[in-house]
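batch_manifest entry 22 of 60
target: Peptidase M48 domain-containing protein
source organism: Jejudonia soesokkakensis
requested by: lab member K.T.
priority: normal
notes from requester: please return tokens only, no post-processing; we will run our own comparison against the previous entry in this batch. if the run fails, retry once and flag.
--- input ---
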Amino acid sequence: MKTQVLLTFITGSLLIISNTTYAQENFQRLVDKIIVSNGTSLNELNFYQASSFMEMPYEKEYPEAVVYNGEKILLLAEDFKTRLDSYLITDWAALLQLSHEVAHHLKNHEFPLSKQHEMKADEFAGKVLNDFGANRKQLTEALETIAESNHAINSKTTVTDRLESLINGWQSASVIDIGVSVSEENVRDRDDTNIDEDEMNAEKILRKSLEALGGVDKIKRIDKLYQHQKNEMKMKVSGTDVAVTTSLEMHYLDSSTLLNKITTVSSLTPGTSTYVETLVKDEKVYTRTTSNVPWVVAPGQTMNMISNSSNYIQEYKLLEKAYTVNYLGVEEFNGKKYYVLETPEETIMENTQSKTTEKKKYYYSVNTGLLTYVDWDSKMGGMVSKNWIHYFDYRSVSGILYSFRQEMTSTIDMSGTEVNVTTITTYPVIEINPDFDETMFKVN
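--- output ---
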């Protein structure tokens, strides 16, 4: 059989054959990124122009993984490489199916493939699309495009099966728990024992953190943001154990417009819940109790819910005013080192009756650059609270890392009465640049 090898991938290096075109070079970098950046290894993977390999017309629009004489092969249509660019992905369907087929070889799936193999390959593909910046809508549209091809959906999985597996992979992409040693393994060779504290400052630490999160370029591409946040709070009040669960749906239309839908359930009033919507727009704060009534201005408030959201890209906001942030040095907890930054006291809410202020310390891992702890005091009238929050479970959303779990402890002093509160915050869904019905943000 006459074959034409277009490129060979060997772990650790890529072999570019002579007369490689620009599209081939980009494709080569793309495959390298898919394989290496996902923490997998592959001894050898060969790509063949399918029509030459098979000596017959190749009708499939998308790649196909095969094993021939013990060799791991991906068959490609003649023009497939021109559909993908390693720097700017626009054909998400092509990347999805390429990643799916590469996954079969990366995970050493046995042929013929089982339904479980196909679903695992789709989970991998969902993760890859997340890493490259695809949002949930683009993921779904990519699968719909593939489904229109007569040769793209295998007989073992339905479109529904595939979508479920893709979303699972997309949502759980790049899980990094900075409290677990496995994440430190990736940076263990970095020498953090000889830190020159005199050379460090707030700007350098914040830029390092932004790079760890995915890079300023990716963060700048955030136009809209959706976060579904769940808070489970427990405390004891006058000897009674109280549990409060809050569900927040946060819709960021842009960097200064936020619609927050809040549902609260308390153990003190079982079977009932309260609902309120808050809109931050044009430097004003509006509230209402249902979506069917007009917005009411909350007078006198200077609350900026955008910059104080616990899971927005706060490092990007801090960088804008880094000259006001103090670098306090390096501290060690549980055998790990952290850069410590301190912000000045800031007014976060003020009206005619009271003012709320906060002063915070941020602890960034020396190894990973990721935010691990925040320690802050909050004052509102005669009430003072001391808070400590731990950030866990960093995952990639469109190539940007977010903490999907935070654990907070608070000690609140209310005129001599002390209340201890624990709060666990999780994020079932975070989406970057989703489609919003912009009428939600209209003030009647």
